[in-house]
From TrEMBL:
It catalyses: L-methionyl-[protein] + [thioredoxin]-disulfide + H2O = L-methionyl-(S)-S-oxide-[protein] + [thioredoxin]-dithiol; [thioredoxin]-disulfide + L-methionine + H2O = L-methionine (S)-S-oxide + [thioredoxin]-dithiol. This is Peptide methionine sulfoxide reductase MsrA. Keywords: Oxidoreductase. It comes from Magnetospirillum gryphiswaldense (strain DSM 6361 / JCM 21280 / NBRC 15271 / MSR-1). Signal peptide: none annotated. Residues 48-199 form the Peptide methionine sulphoxide reductase MsrA domain.
Length: 209
């Protein structure tokens, strides 16, 4: 019953109140050595992605050539500056996301989206594998109109491939990027600190190519 309740977005009026205090985060990315906080280089673009547990998603993304920096956090909900425990309660509406800042010359958006689609299962709704709850939903949170259209087109194309393979419909939400709240310091680059830690990524096995 509790797991089922966690798959339903809370009503904004019933969401946890949160706080004004922002989460302190490390100054630098543990792997890439660059600042986690903006401003970022003018040549870069940014996007928030939800692919299930953000530990494995961040490691997959920071390893891509052309990614300038990554950070994990919470977005798409109602509670300001939530804690991890609050997000896990299902009462904030937030998704676990990775903020990925990338150079589109080195890493075109289409290539980044291909990694996104192929690195998780975007058909599962409010879950990813054994991880169940609104915080594990598939999501792309875009920062400009061109990025939104490219994301929508890629969803359509990948959805057709999944349908041809007899798999379910894509449930990925694609919306303008909402407020991004950095997660606690121990979550940042978690799998660099804990190489044998839980990853959680599992794709459909269907290539975008």
């Amino acid at each position: 019953m509790f797991a089922s309740a966690k798959t339903i977005m809370p009503d904004p009026s019933q969401a946890l109140p949160g706080r004004d205090r922002v989460m302190p985060v490390p100054d630098r990315h543990l792997v890439l050595g660059r600042p986690l906080l903006p401003p970022f280089p003018a040549s870069c673009q940014s996007m928030l992605v939800g692919m299930g547990c953000f530990w494995g998603a961040e490691r997959r993304l920071w390893s891509l050539p052309g990614v300038w920096v990554t950070a994990v956090g919470y977005a798409g909900g109602f509670t300001p500056n939530p804690t991890y425990e609050e997000v896990c309660s299902g009462r904030t509406g937030h998704n676990e996301v990775v903020q990925v800042v990338f150079d589109p010359v080195e890493l075109p958006l289409a290539a980044l989206l291909r990694v996104f689609w192929e690195s998780h299962d975007p058909t599962q709704g409010m879950r990813q594998g054994n991880d169940v709850g609104t915080q594990y939903r598939s999501g792309l949170y875009v920062t400009n109109a061109e990025m939104r259209q490219t994301a929508l087109d890629s969803r359509q194309a990948y959805g057709e491939k999944l349908a041809a393979a007899g798999l379910g419909a894509i449930t990925t939400e694609i919306i303008d990027a909402p407020a991004f709240y950095y997660a606690e310091a121990y979550h940042q680059q978690y799998l660099a600190r804990n190489p044998n830690g839980y990853c959680g990524l599992a794709g459909t096995g269907i290539s975008c190519g």
